[in-house]
Amino acid sequence: MNYPENLKYSEDHEWVRVNGDIAVIGITDHAQGELGDIVYVDIPDAEAELAVGDIFGTLEAVKTVADLLSPLSGKIVEFNSGLNDAPETINKDPYGEGWIVKVKINNMADLDSLMDAAAYIAKIGS
Fold first, then answer.
1. What is the spatial distance between Cα 126 and Cα 77, in angstroms, rounded to a whole number?
2. Which of 93, 78, 98 is nearest to 19 (CA)?
3. What average pLDDT does the chain have?
4. Sheet holding 55-61, edge to edge
């Protein structure tokens, strides 16, 4: 499993990469492995205003459906529309082309509650 050092990680298995006041959010390698083959991504409101912990969408895999929980507060500014035609990209490249949304961060302090790679690895026991 792969856990890049330059990312932050949530308890709910989302990763966050910060570029200025924009956060790119996806799910971790661990999460995609646990879900299995992802067949559909649903982001019902691609301009939603989010609070920490809000459900902003769902991932449908062959055997289960999982909620996506926002690791920070902000407004969705972009959805990875490439996932409409190729949701399996999340399985193949969860930290690259498999990103899910970009969010304009409301409160940079939200990042303080996220884990670094070492803490995330310790949490999942890898």
1. 33
2. 78
3. 95
4. 38-42, 55-61, 65-69
**Cα gap 60→72, rounded to integer Å:** 22
Secondary structure letter of residue 95 according to DSSP: T
| Pairwise CA distance, residues 106 & 24, whole Å | 14
- E strands, 20-123, in order: 22-27, 38-42, 49-50, 55-61, 65-69, 74-79, 101-105
Percent of the chain at pLDDT above 90?
A: 93
pLDDT digits (tens, 9 = 90+) for 51-110: 999 999 999 999 899 999 999 999 999 999 999 999 999 999 999 999 999 999 999 999
Name which of 47, 54, 27, 24 is nearest 38 in CA terms: 27
Kindly report the backbone phi and psi dihedral angles of residue 85, in degrees, each rounded to the nearest multiple of 5, phi listed first. -95, -20
Tokens representing residue 59 in the block? 């991932």
**In the chain, what are the domains?**
14-110 (2.40.50.100)
Give the dihedral of Cα atoms 68, 59, 99, 31; nearest 10 deg.
80
